């Protein structure tokens, strides 16, 4: 990337980072934000602290202390970023995506590291795992938040080990779905609204998580495991005792299910044996346009009833079964609490919006070095994850402005048949070439702090 392009991009980055000035109490600390973000956006082969510091002629220790010791408010910076996205990318068709990613690490000193399933290599490996919330609109997607997952037995129960890794005393084990729920509430508190939320079967299998979202009025499309059970017909519920039930003996609680009722069935068996499902033909839907052509999945749909925390039937939920048209053995099951009249193509499109977070992880790791961190302390890793979100938002906006308008093939309608989305940030290559000390005078940042006050559905192919 030549100097003219660098000089053209730099003022936009200055304006973008200017909004975070009040997250730093000292100008000397604030300047490291520019160094860190520029390093992540550069074309350095390795984007850990030492190469980024060397590239701009800064002692690596200073950048290490920026993550670990210097006083600045990383929580306020994250909130500012989410408020910025709400102001500039708010959309009535937005989709929130919950997912996790992992980072392979050696040894046992890095905060939250343990042998566990590592999605980055597809097997059990020594790694740390972080839970993330992403945001997608028809034109834009980015990462909103990221938190380290603290394992229970190997870390949370060993407070001395936690102390050595800088993990706060008040921070204890939380299931990943609770971390995701906290991130969702935080984003909503910063003004963001999601027309939909979607997540994979690890989160979809948790009934408490789904019920919490439902209680907050949040529409979701959740992938669920094949052994999730549901009723295909609403079972009868008794709300008071009848005369024949007033015999002496153990007192019965009401409301309760009637004794003679149809049983709950695993969703894989609903697909195989339910008559309403058997009568349906598989319908082809173009989910999105990939590099190798249209991605087509076939779908069937049925309204089912889930059991609540008391074992009683919920209101009707959508059961969506999708199989890969090119590989019929690849079958996915989804549950949604959307209104009953919601079209199948909308549910399917929302479900497959999850690919945007995978793309965000890929771009963050390959282009921004999100997995290049070599720090060990908890605070340093948390700050690195938040700064990576800042870099990804700027990267996504840059690509949005320079890629041109994309065709409507990836758009999707919302529950009112307005267009929803899931188009990709299609980018390759760093925004900044490797920046040496000699370059910095030409593109330096003003580090003086400025304080602020606080509707057409998809086509189907039969």
The biggest beta sheet is recorded as:
11 strands, mixed
Number of strands: 17
Number of H/I helices: 16
Q: State the low-pLDDT regions, or none.
A: 405-429, 434-462
Please indicate the percent range of residues in DSSP E strands (runs of 2 or more): 15-25%
Shape: globular
Structural classification: alpha+beta
Helix content: 25-40%
Instruction: Write down the overall mean pLDDT.
Output: 85
Q: Into how many domains do the coordinates divide?
A: 2
Distance between the termini: 48 Å
Rounded to the nearest angstrom, the radius of gyration is: 25 Å
Question: If you had to describe this structure to a student in words, what would you say it looks like?
Answer:
With 462 residues, the chain is α+β, with helices and mostly antiparallel strands. It has 2 domains: 3-208 and 356-440, no CATH class; 220-336, no CATH class. It is built from 16 helices and 17 strands. The strands form 4 sheets. Strands 1, 2, 3, 4, 5, 6, 11, 12, 13, 14 and 17 form an 11-stranded mixed beta sheet that branches. It has a two-stranded antiparallel ribbon with strand order 7-10. Strands 8-9 form a two-stranded antiparallel sheet. Strand 2 and strand 3 (123-136) form a beta hairpin. Helix 2 packs across helix 3. The protein is globular.
List keywords for this structure.
2 domains, two-stranded antiparallel ribbon, 11-stranded mixed sheet, alpha+beta, 462 residues, disordered C terminus, single chain
Brief write-up:
With about 450 residues, this protein is α+β, with helices and mostly antiparallel strands. Helix content is about 35%, strand content about 20%.
